[in-house]
Amino acid sequence: MSAEMDRIEARVVHQLGVMRTASEDLDEVRVTVSSPDGSVRVELDGVCALVGLTLTPAALRLDGAVLGRRIVDTCAVAAREVAARRGAVMERFHTDFAEPGSESPVRASNF
Known about the structure:
The chain has a single domain, classed as Nucleoid-associated protein YbaB-like domain (Ybab, Chain: A), CATH 3.30.1310.10. The protein is about 60% helix and about 15% strand. The chain contains 4 helices and 3 strands. The protein has a 3-stranded antiparallel beta sheet with strand order 1-2-3. The chain starts with a helix and ends with a helix.
């Protein structure tokens, strides 16, 4: 019985480490993207919150509607990158968290 408890304890310790690493990796996700013309730069955090916005002098000469669209479009590009990075973190999490020799729960489902 002691060997089985040791195995369970080791697995739990491993899984806690995997969870901590994934949490830290998700907290560190930050993406900075510039518009194609370089007039707008946005920075999004790991939950796609806008944490930085830089407008060049050229951006300030744009019509308000055009500037607004450029900011939104640039944020959309950044949000897709955030999603990709978060997805990579979660894929590693599922792979590392799964019981050795078992299929990852995400891959085993019918999504």
